[in-house]
Specification:
This protein is an all-alpha fold and about 170 residues long. It contains 8 helices and no strands. Helix 3 (about 35-50) crosses helix 4 (about 65-80) and helix 3 packs across helix 6. The longest helix has 22 residues, at about 5-25.
């Protein structure tokens, strides 16, 4: 066998083994601890948001149960939890007329990072989750470049109605 032929064969075997290892890697959902761990993080995160004066005015007319349920479902789908479904509004529609500033978005991300750190989420998984959520900024922020926080919710914002008890998805 020619030296270059051996090198190509070894390269192909290496690529095949790398692909097989990647195919066996658990989903981000599993690496985060599964649906119950995600639910706990979301509960802690939404509680933190409600206490944070930099962002809590934006949540003033939102149904807390709907928020928690939809964030859990969204993250379940985004992290590939088995059986997870998201039936909420698009991010753009859900945040329409909220006048979310870039500063408020950044404060929300800070709260999420703090919550993930408190839950001892490993750096790799934390960064992977943040990379999934980062692109949502363009759909959520209506005032890019405005670093103000703690702004009032505009009167023209229409929140989604509270969830009906029978319409709530299974806890994930």
């Amino acid at each position: 066998m020619q030296p270059w032929s051996r090198m190509v064969t070894m390269l192909c075997v290496g690529v095949a083994l790398t692909g097989a290892a990647a195919a066996q890697e658990p989903s981000l959902c599993q690496r985060l601890g599964g649906p119950s761990a995600i639910a706990t993080v979301v509960d802690n995160f939404t509680h933190k948001l409600a206490q944070d004066e930099r962002v809590n005015k934006k949540l003033a007319r939102s149904d807390a149960q709907r928020l928690r349920t939809n964030v859990k479902a969204y993250l379940g789908v985004a992290t590939h939890c088995a059986g997870a479904t998201y039936t909420g509004r698009s991010m753009k529609h859900a945040h329409k007329n909220m006048a979310v500033t870039e500063g408020e978005f950044n404060a929300t991300v800070e709260d999420l990072v703090q919550t993930l750190d408190e839950a001892k989420v490993p750096e790799k998984e934390k960064n992977e989750l943040l990379a999934l959520l980062g692109p949502l900024q363009k759909d959520i922020v209506e005032k890019p470049g405005d670093m103000t926080t703690g702004t009032d919710l505009p009167s023209k914002f229409k929140p989604a109605p509270p969830l009906k008890h029978h319409a709530m998805p299974k806890k994930i």
